[in-house]
Amino acid sequence: MITENFASATENAIQVYAAKDLQPLINGSIITPGNGEYNTVRKIWNGMIDRNPAVIVRCINTNDIIHAVRFARDHDLLISVRGGGHNVSGNAVCNGGVMIDLSLMKTVKVYPEEKLAYVEMGATWGDFDKATQEYGLATTGGLISTTGVAGLTLGGGVGWLVRKYGLSCDNLIEAEVVTADGRLAKASLQENADLLWGLRGGGGNFGIVSSMKLRVHKVDTVLGGMIIYTRDKAKEVIQFYRQFIQTAPEELTLYAGLMTSPDGIPVVALIGCYCGDIGKGETVMKPIRDFGSPVVDLIQPIPYVQMQSLLDGGFPHGYRYYWKSGFLEDLSDESIDIIISHMASNPSPYSAIVLEYYGGAAAREPEGGTAYPHRQSQCDLVIGSGWVEKQDDEKNITWTRKIWDALQPYLSHKVYVNTLGVEGEERVREAYGDNYSRLAALKRKYDPDNMFRMNQNILPA
User: Fold this and answer.
1) Are the beta carbons of 94 and 161 closer than 8 angstroms?
2) How far is it, in rounded angstroms, from Cα 218 to Cα 135?
3) What is the residue-averaged pLDDT of the chain?
4) How many CB atoms within 10 Å of residue 91?
């Protein structure tokens, strides 16, 4: 009780200081637990995350971010940063500290002649794509349109264009960053190139990115959708996928997934997007269309924005999510059998297991390099558990861990940082591999006191 009273008194003091010292300096607003917006703003995509910041600073410009960081530093407060708030780990929200909320900063400006786009860090990929598609342009941007541009890009960033145009972070050419000492720095190949390298996959470890410039590419109508088979065909479908994707052209990104249809039927699906000439795409897709006896073939020419939102309905805001993920050493028949057998006992119709093979442009680093290290052509396994009720937490988490344990002999101990939950330092090291020591040195340079630690944290060297 004494501890709770002390914490409450401390948070009350923080709120008083914020109203007196911070609010006069910013153009945005300060939200505290007594404010009617508080419970709405602190909620993020993963409904399992239920944390209570002492203060939420809703920023509307870079100046607001600078003053929020200085306020947190001066009062020695924990900082969390919300962009899209879509990451499964829930690091966008902290308990008892300052949540710096960028979700109102959504400006997107497109420079079609230069094939560049400027974007603020509260924008989602839906916001970004709406702006760039007015000019028939796009860049690699995830699989769910409500994902934030900031978090996805800073962690690497895969999506439907990844095999043709590389990761989101590969297309990052410039960023403005508020560093731990409350100053604004620019990162590009010409200025603070080491920081740009770190931002290309190193997450939010080095500061708060307020805006980015991303390279965009000519993408308009794509050939995309899914082909769905009954679950009893799962092994042969995944075996076909394993062979076909090895020689597929870079214009095609293709994933395989075990899931439950909206009407409750267990299925296996091939989900793909061909971003080149539609006529050539039809030729490329023909072996997929001709394979087996699908329940339905939904692949067709569609606008890119429709492709980007194709899976949105499967990952609703506010459901409860728990993921495990890692790169498979080899998508062997044995590992396929384990995936299929465990999926048969899945307790929730909202869970899925997805196999994502990259390769193509994702295997090549851009000029200046990236902190993202996993350029080998491997298959990423994502066990994405989702359910609705808190009372079902234990059985869904237990199921996820059970299949994860069973697959350990087949994993490479490499992981894509954006699909990590709260799994400890060793897993963060697996996310960065040989780049970890360089990232730790960069962390020491830009954030020696580890102010920005609500993330997949890299400890200062």
Assistant:
1) no
2) 8
3) 95
4) 23
Query: Burial level of 100, CB count in 10 A (0-12/13-18/19+)?
Result: buried
Q: What percent of the chain has pLDDT over 70?
A: 98
Give residue 69's region: left, alpha or beta (phi > 0; psi -120 to 50): alpha
Residues contacting residue 156 through CB under 8 Å, at least 6 positions apart: 167, 168, 169, 201, 370, 372, 416, 417, 418
Q: Which CATH code, of 3.40.50.300, 3.30.830.10, 3.40.462.20, 1.10.8.10, is assigned to 221-425?
A: 3.40.462.20
**pLDDT for residue 11:** 81
| Structural domain spans, the chain | 2-101, 108-218+430-446, 221-425
CA 418 to mean position of chain CA atoms: 5
Q: What are residue 131's phi and psi, to 5 degrees?
A: -75, -45
Average pLDDT (57-74) is 97
Structure-token pair, residue 88: 């499964």
Q: pTM to 2 decimals?
A: 0.95
Using CA atoms, how far residue 394 sits from 164, 308, 320, in Å, is: 40, 32, 12
Confidence band for 10, pLDDT divided at 50, 70 and 90: confident
CATH class name, domain 108-218+430-446: alpha beta
The sign of the torsion formed by the CA atoms of 198, 199, 201, 204 equals positive
The encoded tokens of residue 84 equal 């899209």
Domain 2-101 coded CATH 3.30.43.10 = yes
Residue 2: pLDDT band with limits 50, 70, 90: very low
What mean pLDDT do residues 258-285 have?
97
The closest alpha carbon to 49, from 23, 85, 2, belongs to: 85
Spatial separation of the C-alpha atoms in residues 426 and 439, rounded to whole Å: 15
The answer to whether the CB of 339 falls within 8 A of the CB of 239 is no
Q: Please determine, for residue 3, whether its predicted confidence score (pLDDT) is greater than 70.
A: no
Window from 17-21, 25-29, 291-295, 455-459 with minimum mean pLDDT = 17-21
Q: How much is the pLDDT for 46?
A: 97
Q: What gap in Å lies between CA 328 and CA 380, rounded to an integer?
A: 6
